[in-house]
């Protein structure tokens, strides 16, 4: 993994480590950055802690350290959850570290080339891997257009049913009635800047209902300034990253997803598992495989922020629709539960 904090791929890796460990597998986790927030199980190896007095030798030393750890672990299967768009780095890793036929590569975004380098060399190489796991049917179809892979498998992200109990915990302070959005504060992907401006003109905002945003990231200061410049301090709250976001999600009226691109957004699955209704853009991958429009939430025309505003107003004002969607939340995502999806991972690993 790149790290164990912040994003859906990272959380998916952490959850999988726990499930494998509980199933009596010997689990090792290698992280490339010293960022650990999600709980995990297994032996952790932190490559980021490797340092060298000469900066130019640092990456080379990390490469040989990774090779040494890789050989020490000597796993039956290696699951690669990293982003993989630096071509030279990936060439070096395949030349000096990875055993391709033992490796399962994962793709967690509709932006496939974040996880699959563009060079055709890698298409042929990945086709020799144990498998390429994509997390949605949308990603599966897009990946098929790149190359005639014969080892593609779709295994969606899953949630651990223990989050239902975690959702009963108290939040840090009283928020009153609120609506929530959750994700890494990275505007080019999550578009929280545009969401803030859209939400400011909604009916719930005008009635004093907070929009609470959970998450951290590089654009925190930009969002903070945006809120201040538009005098929205009493309407929008940035609460930062929470190790346990589930009470906040469960106690919210509904959750909004305003992303430009997704894979299999865990936040939608987890919200529905917590019986929280969702309103989401119909991104090219993910939401339509989770949300049934007007059954457990609302799917909004992709990237139409005016339509998103109207959907927020509708979910807030239409009590009949809201209660109907809320009734169907939990049952709609049973197919994404750990007890269902984990069996697909076991089948792959043991093949």
From TrEMBL:
Query: Where is the organism placed in the taxonomic lineage, from the top?
Result: Bacteria, Pseudomonadati, Bacteroidota, Flavobacteriia, Flavobacteriales
What's the top EC group for this one?
Answer: transferase
Q: What is its EC number?
A: 2.4.-.-
Residue span, Glycosyltransferase subfamily 4-like N-terminal domain: 7-159
InterPro entries, per this entry? Answer: Glyco_trans_1, Glyco_trans_4-like_N
Q: Which GO terms describe its molecular function?
A: glycosyltransferase activity
For the Glycosyl transferase family domain, which residue ranges apply? 178-330
Can you tell which superkingdom this protein's organism belongs to?
Bacteria
Q: What is this protein called?
A: Glycosyltransferase
Q: Does the keyword ATP-binding apply?
A: no
**Keywords, in A-Z order:** Glycosyltransferase, Transferase
């Amino acid at each position: 993994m790149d790290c164990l904090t912040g994003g859906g791929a990272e959380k998916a890796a952490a959850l999988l480590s726990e499930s494998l460990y509980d199933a009596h597998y010997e689990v090792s986790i290698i992280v490339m950055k010293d960022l650990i927030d999600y709980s995990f199980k297994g032996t952790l190896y932190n490559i980021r802690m490797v340092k060298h007095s000469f900066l130019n030798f640092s990456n080379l030393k990390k490469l040989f350290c990774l090779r040494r750890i890789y050989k020490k672990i000597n796993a039956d299967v290696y699951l690669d959850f990293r982003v993989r768009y630096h071509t030279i780095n990936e060439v070096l890793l395949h030349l000096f570290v990875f055993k391709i036929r033992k490796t399962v590569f994962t793709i967690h975004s509709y932006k496939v080339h974040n996880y699959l380098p563009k060079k055709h060399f890698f298409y042929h190489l990945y086709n020799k891997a144990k498998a390429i796991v994509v997390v949605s049917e949308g990603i599966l179809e897009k990946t098929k257009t790149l190359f005639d892979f014969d080892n593609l498998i779709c295994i969606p992200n899953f949630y651990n049913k223990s989050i239902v109990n975690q959702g009963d915990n108290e939040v840090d302070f009283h928020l009153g009635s609120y609506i929530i959005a959750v994700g890494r504060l990275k505007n080019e992907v999550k578009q929280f800047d545009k969401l803030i401006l859209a939400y400011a003109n909604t009916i719930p905002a005008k009635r004093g209902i907070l929009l609470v945003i959970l998450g951290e990231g590089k654009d925190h200061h930009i969002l903070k300034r945006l809120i201040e410049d538009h005098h929205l301090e009493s309407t929008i709250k940035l609460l930062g990253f929470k190790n346990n976001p589930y009470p906040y999600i469960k106690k919210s009226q509904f959750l909004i997803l305003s992303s430009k691109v997704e894979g299999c957004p865990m936040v939608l699955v987890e919200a529905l598992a917590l019986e929280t209704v969702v309103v989401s853009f119909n991104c090219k991958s993910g939401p339509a495989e989770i949300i049934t429009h007007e059954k457990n939430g609302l799917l909004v025309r992709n990237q139409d922020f005016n339509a998103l505003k109207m959907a927020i107003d509708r979910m807030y004002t239409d009590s009949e629709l809201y209660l109907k969607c809320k009734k169907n939340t939990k049952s709609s995502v049973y197919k994404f539960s750990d007890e269902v999806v984990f069996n697909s991972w076991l089948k792959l690993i043991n093949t």
